[in-house]
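User: Hey, my collaborator sent me this sequence without any context and asked if I could get a structure. I don't really work with proteins. Can you help?
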Amino acid sequence: MAVIRTGGFGRWTRTGLFAELLVLVVLALAATVLAIAAAEWPALRLRVDLTRAGANTLDPTTAAMVADLPVDVRIDVFFSPVPGDVGPAIEEVQQRTLDLLFVLRESAGPKIEISNLPVNRPALREERARELRLSRDNVLVVSAGPRRVALRVEADLASIALGDPRQGSAPSVVDFRAEEALVEALGRVADAREPRVLFSTGLGEPDPAAMALGEALAVEGFGVGTWSHERDGAVPAEAAVLAVLGLEQPFTAGAVEAIRGFVAGGGNLLVALGAQYLDGPGSPLDLLEPYGLRAVRGLVCTPLVDPRTGGPLEGHPEVSSLVIPTEMLNATHPVTQSLAERGRRLRGAFFRALERGRTPTGGAVLALVGTREDSWRDVPGLDNRPNWTFDEATEERGRMMIAASSEFPTSPTTETRARVVALGGLDFLGDTHFETNRDFALNLFNWLAARDFRVRVARRDPFEARIDLERGSERVWAERLALWYLPASSALLGLLFLWRRRR
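Assistant: No problem. I've predicted the 3D structure and written it out in structure-token form, which is a compact way to encode the shape of the chain:
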């Protein structure tokens, strides 16, 4: 008969068991830390996007941009509710943008910091807005050091159709393009170059330091300065753009030679005509002539609507104030392409019409902005004053070009190309309508400085990645899953576990 000896745990046995337990706990903690560290290592991440529209996957263009970011970027979110019928559409754009930012952060890792500044923390929100010199709400600010780009919900992240309450249609999102806008913004703030823009001075031109344009260019990453032939001589070769705005007196022959030498060396020129019409040597017209651009006398006007009769109203200086509709923007030129795609408009007054001259060899002269069919060129009379009324005998009516570009090789033996832009009026860049024309103005200087950040990102169907819980069959399946399938599965697992225990 076998004798079974029993006894309690000895001191060393308990110590050994405690040591084994301690080692297991340490190993478990170490495994947890390693698992967390591995999860944060992009090379070991495995993400599977099960949505049909790929809502949780970045476009290859975006992924490549994020992977090659040379600097750390911060994205500040200043979203807030919008009252009225358009509120739900705005909220949809905001939520979809936040979802995109989550995917972006997961892909970028520490390269991109995202800060969502909620409305219920006004002190923090206002402090950061002051740091960014932000004056508007409902924007997304992408920044890297001193460079920043503000993206507006309705203008840059999406297009919203206002609908028609009389027909029962509510405002809705018709074009969500936040990913494309974000990639363009990342490209701008990540560009560490500081192209230098020089503004001519000393002949009645406005001071760029006193213009909203000067501050916007500085924020955009440009170095801003001035140039005067009498003071500086030749235009510095390191300058990317020379801007001549609203000239009131003609340049000297030496200044014209310096400007043309700058362009011949691959420099880029912007000329905005002022209120005073100058021709002859040293005038803006003289500067533009070799590059296939000319300006004609008279101001471009469009008739107003008489509120009493509903007919056209003329004879008032207000007819020179133009609203440029989207269809009058060149949808194929890099300067205006994004504006045309996003349904943007421009505003301004006192514009002169431009004409094509003799195009430089190997170059191209393209219209950027035109006017409506009912526009006319108001030619001054003998007293050199406009009468703001269309005269069929002496004036022409129809579409006119008020902004144009010229791009051409500087010589037949080199691949260097120069870019010249002519604006029919200073109001495109002035403070009066700068908020409306800001993107056009910045696009101009970015194109002239060869800082082209236009990208193509595949658009996503806003409804592909959604579950319709109001009308679709998904609601039935969701209710069955929550109310029946999950509880029944849990009950079966419990019964199986109880049966195995009884055995």
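In plain terms: The CA atoms of residues 122 and 271 lie 44 Å apart. You can pass these tokens on to your collaborator as they are.
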